[in-house]
Every structure is written in C-alpha cells, then in structure tokens.
Amino acid sequence: MRKTEMFLGIAMLTLAFPMTAFASDGFEDFNDYMTEDGNYAYYFECGINVKMPEDWYRNVLVETEQKFVTFYHQASYDKYLEDGDNAGGKLLTIGCSVNTDFKDYPGYTYIGYDEEEAMNYYYAVPTDYQGYAEDEAVKSEYDRLYSELEEVCKNITLNTDYDDDDLDDSEEAAEIARKATEIQPEDKGGMIAGKIGGDETETKTSAEPEEYIFDESKSDYEGTWVSFADAYQVYLPSYWDYYYLTEQEKQEGILYKAESEAEDIAVIINYSVIGNGTEEDLLTNEEVAENFQRAGYREVKQVVINGITSVTCSIPDEDISLTAFLNEEGNRLYMVMVNTDEETSMHYIEPILHSVKKV
C-alpha cells in the first residue's frame, strides 16, 4: 500500500467531531461538518450526504441504524419523550434497501442506486404533523424547521464514485483529527510532533516553547511554497506528485495531498472545526497537545514555528509525523502530516513540518 493510501481524508471539512463516528458502510458511521458556504452537512459512509442550514444542524437529533437514519426536531422529541412517546418530532428519514419494499412507505422519494453495493436509497418525510403542539415555542421551532425541509431534501445526494482504499485512508486521518479536537469534560489539552526530537513520551509544556524559523535557502531539496486555507504556506519538494481531490476528500477536510512514490513518502494537509464553533467549545494549543498525549502519540511538543504557536508529534504505529496549529479565532485546527518509514526519506520530515508559515 502506498503511503498516501495510509492516511488520506482527514477531518471533515470542518467536522464537529464529538458527533463523529467511523467504521463499516452504512448509516451508523458518519461525520458532520461545516460547508464552505456556512451551512452544515452530514456525510454517511454509505455515500449519502445531507446538506442543511445551521438552524437545522443546531436543532435536530440524529438517530442511526445500519439501514436508515432519522432526523428529529430535538425539542419536540424531548417533549414527546416526557409523555412516554419516543418517536415524536420526526422530520426526515433516509434509508437503503436491496429491494423496493420502501415504495410502500408513505411520503417516500427515490434517491438512487449503488451498483457496487446493489443497494437502493430513498428518503421519506412525515405525512402527519410531528411537532409538539402543546408547547407553542416548541411548535413554532418545529414549524420553522419543517418549512426548510423541502430545501434540505433537495440537498440529499448519493456518492457511489469511491475507492475502498481511499475510504479506509480517510477514516484513519479523520480519527487523528477527532482525537486532536475532542472536547474533554474537564481538563483538556493537546499537542503533536513528528519524528523530530527524542523518544520522550511526556508532553512538553515549558513556559518557553522551542522556536523554529525556516530558511528555504538552507533546504536540502528544491521546493515550492504551497498555499492552503488562503492564509498559510508550507514548503514542499517541487518534484513530488500532486493529487486532485475528490469531492468526498474535500468534505472530509483534505486541503492538499502529494507524494513521491519513488521515495515512499507522502504529505497531506487538512483542517477540522473545533466542536460546534461556540466559545465554550474552543480549544487552546495546550488542550490540543494533551488530547494527543491522551491518544498515546509520541514526542508531543508545543513549539513556535515561524511565529505560529503549534503542536508537533509522531504516531509511530502509522509512520506519521505532523504539525498542528489553531487559527487565530481558535475554532479551526490545521494539520500538516508527513507519512514515511523509508530511512532515506526521513530528512524531509523536519523541514516540511517546520516550514509552515502565514502568508
């Protein structure tokens, strides 16, 4: 397996990771993320993508099983639950079936067919009123969400153009991002590093972190400054192969990927959104560092790279070294990851991870 095939596809184009899961195909495994236009979306590993406005994202409950997912109005669901009904407040159900029994369901619409999985996909909307009518505020909120239902349904898509290896790689990278951005109930923290430094496993939390200034004139490779997120750059070998990103990879947070197959080394740049983006969910650099320490990653250090407060670490089991840093608002985490176990390519790791700078 090539190195890029090991960790492609990280952290949802702004994943809200506390709600994220990864594993086998189906609706039980999904990630949720913020889209470029400020809306939100759920991507299910079976290939279904649901784009929705923020009002929906903030006020729906998502319940999944292997063959279907249901979106409920959270407030109506909770009120009905108090009354002993655990199915009230329904807004939308999306399902899959090897046959066409779903055509008997009231309010269904056909989405498409996945030939590789031999699976039909459909969605169904309520044919009776599901809002909790005994509470005017709750009812009003349900009605507002229901008024947006048609637009949400228009933005349900099925992606069947995927590669199994890429899906596995995306999961691996997304898991790293999830661990970095996980909101802890009490103490939080985090840091990441690469194969730079010693073998120490303790988190480096000194008051004066190490500082690195990159000088491209001293680089031992001919490079090119690669821009990402319209705000940052990293210095990569000019002769490496760049890969065009699929829509799924973009949705999962990948910003750039490249490799040198001959040298058995690859790099991926990605980002993810922290929690729900609210102030109480934001993480500090220290908290990101501790999250990586908690995950068992090695050589976790807080550093300053070209003026950017960052965290570096290594993940020996995956042959990954990385630099991670938060944007100025503290609601988005960026990662530059280098993957290699080739001794003759190790010299790339430190200069790449230490070259990150603001534009």
Topology (elements, then pairings):
Blueprint: H1 4-7, E1 30-34, E2 40-44, E3 48-52, H2 54-59, E4 60-64, E5 68-73, H3 74-82, E6 90-97, E7 108-114, E8 119-124, H4 136-147, H5 149-154, E9 156-158, H6 164-181, E10 210-212, E11 223-228, E12 232-237, E13 241-242, H7 247-251, E14 254-260, E15 265-273, H8 285-294, E16 298-305, E17 308-315, E18 320-326, E19 332-340, H9 349-353, E20 357-358
Strand order of the largest sheet: 10-16-17-18-19-15-14-13
Strand/helix succession: HEEEHEEHEEEHHEHEEEEHEEHEEEEHE
Segments where pLDDT lies below 50 for 5+ residues? 1-24, 162-168, 184-206
Largest sheet: 8 strands, mixed
Question: Can you walk me through this structure?
Answer:
By secondary structure, the chain is an alpha+beta fold. It has two domains: about 110 residues, no CATH class; about 200 residues, 3-Layer(aba) Sandwich (Protein Transport Mog1p, Chain A). Helix content is about 20%, strand content about 35%. Strand 4 and strand 5 form a beta hairpin. The longest helix has 18 residues. The radius of gyration is 22 Å and the shape is elongated. The chain starts with a helix and ends with a strand. The N terminus is likely disordered.
